[in-house]
Amino acid sequence: MELQNIKRVYLIGIGGIGMSGLARYFHHLGCIVCGYDKTSTELTTELHNEGIQIIFDDNAEWIPMSFRQPDEGTLIIFTPAIPKDSQVLNFFKDRGFELFKRSQVLGLISKGKFTVAIAGTHGKTTTSTMVAHILKDSGVDCSAFLGGIASNYNSNVLYGKNDIVVVEADEYDRSFLTLYPNIAVITSMDADHLDIYGDHAHLTDSFKMFASQIKEGGVLIHKQGLPLDTGYTYSIKEAADATATNIRIENGSFYFDFKNADADIKGIQLGIPGFHNVENATAAIEATLRLGVSADAVKSALASFSGVHRRFEYIVKNDNRIYIDDYAHHPEELRAAITSVKKLYPNKKLVTIFQPHLFTRTRDFVDGFAEVLNMTDELILLDIYPARELPIEGVDSNMILSRMKLANKRILSKQDTIEAIKNEQPELLLTVGAGDIDQLVEPLKNALTNV
């Protein structure tokens, strides 16, 4: 499959954050783009309004005539989350189409370009968006495929006029092994996706393999302390090749200094809060300095960076109420979010609403979830969001709750959660999770503000 030959693209699971980015990219190139997803969302509505045809019925009869015979101009992309018995999926399989995963298509697009790939079990979406924003804001420019909606651009795909492409490299299903970057960033390698990898050692091996695929003359930038033998390190806690120091909070904003062998940047204001985001910014600065961005341009870009939708995103921020929403769904991500909220608002009682994501992840990290959720002042747990999984006997939200020492904790339905927040009016609220908890954001905002 050659990129220049593609005229028609069909995406099975088009509503996913990565898949929708590809849909927008090929539509931008002038291709006919169609797709299927099981449910309509705000994102699929946006795609429809942009001129992309989408069906929500798993019925092959709705597939357009122009996609019924395989040829070199037709590209079919699928997500592994699609059930194997899907009618739409099997229509293309049965007719001999070659089906591509999102990661393979990213490999195809980035082939022959200067590729900056950001990987990590957490931090990769914010870091890749920071890299893209610094390159855009500074005038160096880039194209980018992001794992979230960049608030500065209200999109998950950016188009540039040069051959630099920034991609979020996903470790799930070993997807990132289709990429051969010039610059690779690895933000973290914590145990996750054990339903795919089996154990942490195999996950680590996969990251090492990704690092080994960097093109000749390229560079690996990784967080200090990761089990990698080569590369350039960064840290906010200890001396590294690139270090953030003098981290402080002034008037609700995070400030820090950056230093490496060639640059010393003082008083950087970060447009979004969080110690973990200072760490992400340190990696992004190191990567973009290597692409010719000046120290002043880096400083200016980070001050104007407004973050990523659902990454430490302020929903309500006034004198009476603070409500922050975050995508955190792994114990270490939760630790980063809760720690930063409590540091920002040390005198406010923190109420956290958490929706566990996947039965396997809940089972594998139940003790970690229990430990980190004890850090909040009050907890509301929702039922587990199953995503692609079937239930596992004995694995539920109570598995976490029963291991916690926190006194003020409970499991509620979504509707009861909205009612509780409406009645109790917490002054500091945090919602966290990677499932459909985002559907609660607007109702919770209304519950807090319409009083």
From TrEMBL:
Its UniProt pathway annotation is: Cell wall biogenesis; peptidoglycan biosynthesis
Major subcellular site = cytoplasm
Q: Where does ATP bind?
A: 120-126
Instruction: Give UniProt keywords alphabetically.
Output: ATP-binding, Cell cycle, Cell division, Cell shape, Cell wall biogenesis/degradation, Cytoplasm, Ligase, Nucleotide-binding, Peptidoglycan synthesis
A Pfam family the protein falls into:
Mur_ligase_C
Task: List the subcellular locations.
Answer: Cytoplasm
CC annotations in GO: cytoplasm
Q: What is this protein called?
A: UDP-N-acetylmuramate--L-alanine ligase
Gene Ontology biological process: cell division; cell wall organization; peptidoglycan biosynthetic process; regulation of cell shape
The species this protein belongs to is Mucilaginibacter mallensis
Chain's gene name: murC
Cell cycle: present as a keyword of the record? yes
Q: Which GO terms describe its molecular function?
A: ATP binding; UDP-N-acetylmuramate-L-alanine ligase activity
Q: Does the keyword Ligase apply?
A: yes
Which InterPro entries has this protein been placed in?
A: Mur-like_cat_sf, Mur_ligase_C, Mur_ligase_C_dom_sf, Mur_ligase_cen, Mur_ligase_N, MurCDEF_pg_biosynth, UDP-N-AcMur_Ala_ligase_MurC
User: What family does this belong to?
Assistant: Belongs to the MurCDEF family.
Domain Mur ligase central residues, every copy: 118-287
User: Which catalytic reaction applies to this protein?
Assistant: UDP-N-acetyl-alpha-D-muramate + L-alanine + ATP = UDP-N-acetyl-alpha-D-muramoyl-L-alanine + ADP + phosphate + H(+)
- Supply the enzyme class, top level: ligase
The record places domain Mur ligase N-terminal catalytic at 9-112
Q: What's the stated role of this polypeptide?
A: Cell wall formation.
Residues of the signal sequence? none
Q: What is its EC number?
A: 6.3.2.8
Domain Mur ligase C-terminal stretches? 310-434
